[in-house]
């Protein structure tokens, strides 16, 4: 291959990869559209009041949350009452748990003594179902946002902490010896060696904890909140509004998908070196 042919070959490979990604993207959304169409057909034929059609659910969503003026991006005032408080609790609790989990997890992972002493306690606390502790949090903290944030943090910190500890313990021996030979400072050692080595497992814990935070947000809002999607879901159930109940469920699913997609995008950018080395970059995009 001549020098002039190499750029052409690379350009052709880039175009083929781009087409493959677009084809994969369109195929995934085509499957989703097909599932929604099947859902519409089956529920229309069944005509069961407990399972409304997707088109009916979409009408409820549009009426409650997407009926505002164009100057507000068609978002109604119910968004600030239902969606915004829930998102604040999810992201706030998840963010606090991420900081605590990464900090404590890396410290435990780099200390054999701490790991040996604390591992049984950590695994015991991780095994405790957070919803079972909801009455305890209500008694100790009371109803309100503080209780909800505390429950979310307690429930989602363990995947991050344990994955961070496991990742910090799996730093390659060659990197440890190289840093020791060059007398790398403690801060540069943590930021330049330990965290990059542990980051794939840390992001795995972050993705698990993000989905758990959404679940715990709904549970906590059903008990101790006057606003939020969890409270809206309870009100719809008490009013026997099945359409409203399904509308909240769909909104929760959409929010979970968008949050996970945003985290995956950040993960791909931060771990681009890892995905490229493992051959996953071309598949994940």
User: What's the shape?
Assistant: globular
The strand count comes to 0
Percent strand equals under 5%
Largest sheet: none
CATH class label of the domain at 82-217 and 253-284: Mainly Alpha
**Whole-Å distance between the termini?**
28 Å
Query: Structural class given helices, strands, pairing?
Result: mainly alpha
N-to-C series of helices and strands: HHHHHHHHHHHH
pLDDT under 50 segments (min length 5)?
281-285
- Provide a count of the helices: 12
CATH fold group of the domain at 82-217 and 253-284: MetI-like fold
- What is the CA-based Rg, rounded? 24 Å
CATH-derived architecture of the domain at 82-217 and 253-284: Orthogonal Bundle
Keywords:
0% strand, 285 residues, 12 helices, globular, MetI-like fold, mainly alpha, single chain, 82% helix, disordered C terminus
Descriptive overview:
- This protein has 285 residues and is an all-alpha fold.
- The protein has a domain of 168 residues: MetI-like fold, CATH 1.10.3720.10.
- It contains twelve helices and no strands.
- Helix 2 packs across helix 10 and helix 3 runs parallel beside helix 6.
- The protein is globular.
List the helices and strands and how they pair.
Blueprint: H1 5-46, H2 54-65, H3 78-109, H4 112-127, H5 134-141, H6 145-169, H7 173-181, H8 186-224, H9 229-238, H10 242-270, H11 272-278, H12 281-284
Helix pairs in contact: 2-10, 3-6, 3-8, 3-9, 4-6, 5-6, 6-8, 8-9, 8-10, 9-10
